[in-house]
User: Which sequence fits this backbone?
């Protein structure tokens, strides 16, 4: 089953249970994938978190019910998961720009988010630069932080972590230790679902031959067949766009699957704000 098919099954499950208190675990099970990968790939393909999709869809349907005028506002609020009329009104106004009462009286425009239907773009108009290579296990040294994936907290925390590393000189310290088989600063994402639900470890590190380094943590990246994708362009958009193309175009048509394990972003020397900047994405595949 392709990633697109898996994501569509999860979307269909959410739509069938919009009025229920469904968990992320139940949704990811419908996609037949791990919770971490489901939330990550969903965000890449749709540009929103799972929680945002559910909230937008529920408030869209709530607005449609209110416009019919057949039920009380408080009843509609409870139906769509809000415990108080006040919390419902705040969320409703944030999405639609008007209050539930104004919708009831046919004043103002509403903002509708329709049911998602994912499609695969297999035209190949824009070529993707990649190679698949086998590499032995190697060690990295660096900094590690744990992030929750709930409500996209990792998407907020990881850029802050990079800002700190780039600001306090840790990036230069890591580059001095970069004696291993991968050149450049590494952003490494490690799924911790088996140990701690909804959490990942994120490393900013450098590959190094040798033992431990004072003040830095160490991890072994296991032997794997890596699909290595070239990324051309300024950060962060070039990296984000390539991730999206990998899962919406390359995986569905390549015959490869994600093998699990750490995923790497490799940042080479140069100006990351330049349109000529080169970086890489490494994904273990089978």
Assistant:
């Amino acid at each position: 089953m392709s990633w697109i098919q898996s994501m569509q099954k999860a979307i269909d499950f959410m739509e069938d249970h919009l009025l229920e208190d469904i968990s992320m675990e139940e949704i990811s099970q419908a996609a037949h994938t791990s919770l971490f990968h489901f939330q990550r790939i969903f965000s890449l393909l749709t540009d929103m978190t799972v929680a945002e999709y559910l909230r937008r869809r529920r408030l869209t349907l709530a607005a449609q019910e209110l416009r019919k005028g057949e039920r009380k506002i408080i009843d509609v609020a409870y139906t769509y998961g809000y415990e108080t009329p006040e919390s419902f009104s705040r969320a409703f106004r944030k999405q639609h720009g008007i209050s539930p009462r104004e919708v009831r009286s046919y004043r103002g425009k509403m903002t509708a988010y329709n049911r998602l239907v994912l499609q695969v773009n297999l035209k190949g108009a824009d070529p993707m630069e990649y190679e698949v290579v086998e590499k032995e296990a190697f060690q990295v040294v660096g900094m590690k932080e744990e992030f929750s994936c709930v409500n996209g907290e990792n998407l907020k925390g990881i850029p802050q972590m990079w800002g700190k590393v780039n600001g306090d000189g840790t990036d230069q310290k890591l580059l001095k230790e970069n004696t291993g088989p991968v050149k450049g600063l590494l952003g490494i994402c490690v799924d911790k679902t088996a140990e701690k639900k909804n959490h990942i470890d994120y490393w900013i590190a450098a590959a190094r031959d040798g033992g431990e380094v004072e003040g830095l943590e160490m991890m072994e990246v296991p032997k794997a067949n890596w699909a290595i994708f070239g990324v051309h362009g300024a950060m962060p958009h070039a990296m984000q766009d390539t991730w999206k193309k990998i899962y919406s175009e390359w995986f569905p048509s390549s015959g490869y699957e994600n093998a699990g394990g750490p995923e790497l972003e490799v940042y080479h020397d140069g100006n990351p704000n330049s349109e000529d900047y080169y970086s890489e994405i490494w994904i273990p595949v089978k």
